[in-house]
Amino acid sequence: MKKFLIPFLGSVLLCSNMMVAQEKWSSDRADGHAPISIMGDHTHNKGEFMLSYRYMPMWMDGLINGSDEIENGEVFDRYMAVPQDMRMDMHMLGAMYAISNKVTLAAMLNYIYNDMVLRSKMGMNFTTESSGFGDIAVNALVNFYDKNRQKMHANIGVSIPTGDLEQSGDTPMMENARLAYPMQLGSGTLDPTIGVTYLGQIDKLSWGIQPKFKFRLGENSQDYNLGNRFDAVAWTAYSLFQSWSVSGSLSYFDQQEIDGVDVEMNPMMMPLFDTTNSGRSQLDLGIGSNFYVLTGTLKNLRVGIEVKLPLYQDVNGIQMKNQLAGTIGLQYSLSPKK
Fold it and tell me: 77: buried, middle or exposed (CB in 10 Å: 19+, 13-18, 0-12)?
């Protein structure tokens, strides 16, 4: 992955050499927030409050083994059913509140709907669905540097296991069968997260870098955990106007394989019941835009949109191929009355 990330990160960091004025970084512009898919990218001043909503669809289609596409026939040699395509829709509500100029608290709640089409060895297509609330995330963003229009803060948080792990549905092989690991709604474990965010800007340009680690503590109620995860994203945005910016990003994640097994999932039935087919790394290109309302009744409302396309993906064993992901969101900030 270094051959993808190093040139981009290098170009982003070079922008810091263009700083001339001893000014502080500002969020009072369209590119003052990162692309809408990135969480925990900014902090607030004491007493400021922000509400957000994001709609995040993702599409998967076809199968890959490692990084190579494969056909159904190759999978039916080992399994009774093969996933064909899947769509996940996530609705996320967020809130942020700054208890001081140093510390901003944040919480996120999401509702998930999954739809997967599978084909049996007899050639019959069938659909499974799952839906419900996922895990709740709570975070603290702690500022430790703000100078020369550059800013850094720590991202410290934990994911609370509120998502259901016993989603079931009817299939041609069995009624009320446990659905595959990707169809479940949470991790089932307490998952601490730690990371850091770096921000910088000049008059028309802004940029940022954010690496984060998520750790799974212990096993969940079904005797497995989803594996630790590393995420890193770098972005840059250009202000066409103070109220409108466009952005580009590169994001990478490495998800380790599932540790343990849910005994309700027979690994011979389908690839996504078999934990040897879990864990992946992926590099995505993101293209987005932010719109910021400067005056009027809706002042401080932001509207963001971003589309992500996989540039590279490599999986353990046989898994579904990610095709496209998107995020559309609203962010509305309120400042304390003076």
Answer: exposed
Locus of tokens 């998952």: 191
Smallest CA-to-CA distance from 207 within 149, 166, 261 is with: 149
Give me the sign of the Cα torsion angle 272, 274, 276, 279. positive
Q: What pLDDT tens digit does each residue of the chain (338 aa) get?
A: 544 444 444 544 444 444 434 477 888 889 999 999 999 999 999 999 999 999 999 999 999 999 999 999 999 999 999 999 999 999 999 999 999 999 999 999 999 999 999 999 888 999 999 999 999 999 999 999 999 899 999 999 999 999 999 999 988 888 899 999 999 999 999 999 999 999 999 989 999 999 999 999 999 999 999 999 999 999 999 999 989 999 999 999 999 999 999 999 999 999 999 999 999 999 999 999 999 999 998 999 999 999 999 999 999 999 999 999 999 999 999 888 65
CA distance 223 to 280: 21
Contact predicate 112/131, CB 8 Å: yes
- 167-195: string of b/e by CB count within 10 Å (b at 16+)? bbbebeeeeebbbbbbbbbbbbbebebeb
Cα–Cα distance list, 93 to 23, 130, 334 (Å): 33, 19, 16
The answer to whether the CB of 134 falls within 8 A of the CB of 166 is no
Token couple for 70: 């494969």
For the residues of 281-322, what is the DSSP string, one character each? EEEEEEEEEEEE--SSTTTTEEEEEEEEEEEEEEESSEEEEE
- The answer to whether residues 327 and 301 touch, using CB atoms and an 8 Å cutoff, is no
